[in-house]
Amino acid sequence: MNGPQTLSQVFDRLDKALSALDDAVDRSAEIRREYSDAEEEVQRLNADRARLAEELDASEARAVRLEDVNKEVSRRLVTAMETIRAVLDR
């Protein structure tokens, strides 16, 4: 400090300090809001990921069933063709 200050100067410094504190509190509150928003987004993304994983599992299971059915249909067609050939060859 440079010598004695007037009451007006002290109030000016106090006003600047309070303004700086208010700005810091506002920034802190904004950071907390952004962090909270980010946490909510992460939770939504995790829920979406879980839902998509379930859908993928169901789709993979369906694909396996369809492949099994396709193999069975193919086997039956081969059997039918062999039967038809045997009948025609007689």
From TrEMBL:
Keywords associated with the record: Coiled coil
Pfam families: DUF4164
UniProt xrefs under InterPro entries: DUF4164
Positions in coiled-coil regions: 14-76
Protein name, as recorded: DUF4164 family protein
UniProt organism field: Oceaniradius stylonematis
Source taxonomy: Bacteria, Pseudomonadati, Pseudomonadota, Alphaproteobacteria, Hyphomicrobiales
